Amino acid sequence: MVFTKIFKLIRNHFFNKIFYSIFPSFCSICGVFLEDFQQEICTACRHQLDVAKPRDFLASNTSSLFFTNKQVVGIHVLFRFEKFGVIQKLIHNFKYYENKKLSLLLGKWHAQQLLQCKILDDVDFLVIVPMHPRKKKQRGYNQVETYAEVLSVETGIFYQKNFFKKIKTSKTQSRQSKKDRFENVKNTLQLNYSEPLQGKHIVILDDVITTGATLLSCLDLLKTIPDIKVTLVSIAMVYDDFL
Ligand SMILES: [Zn+2]
Q: Ligand 1 centre from 172 Cα, in Å?
């Protein structure tokens, strides 16, 4: 019993990455061994996953940041992001360990929710927030791209790759004011799409919305396009800025 506890502690803290890459059948949140019938997340962790309710995330402070932009017609998130919570662990594993099975699982759940609430009914295509090519090369993948591909297959909505381009890396945002965060990200992005966008409805996808600075910068690049409509979709979102 004691040995099992020590073993779990060592595994979770020091060998997480190795375990995930060698043994894909461990829970993506707590790291326990999964039974055959469990997919990526153990039963105990699944019970702790609180799927976000539209009335809550639409009333959040973070949503109000976006709704001041006239292009934004909808926001949808799968989970509320809270510091040190289950979703933080889930997003961390999603971001830093290339877990395609987890992307597939979350993407399918998310697609079901999106289709049920009909938020995507007149959407023309789906795009993602960009990652700097150097960062993608270092990491070897972009987890949001994988997620976009799953959502595209599940919803039947076209995924337009490289719509936004990251031309510079932005500084770490945690100690900056909201205005500084926005200014910091603002000049690092470019629109990389030459077709007419007037009257189009696009979905911008991110994995987690914390300060909202990157998405606000994406919206800023679209602000002069007449009648464009944007729906923001993210796996998780901070409801009130805690950074
Ligand atoms: Zn678990």
A: 30
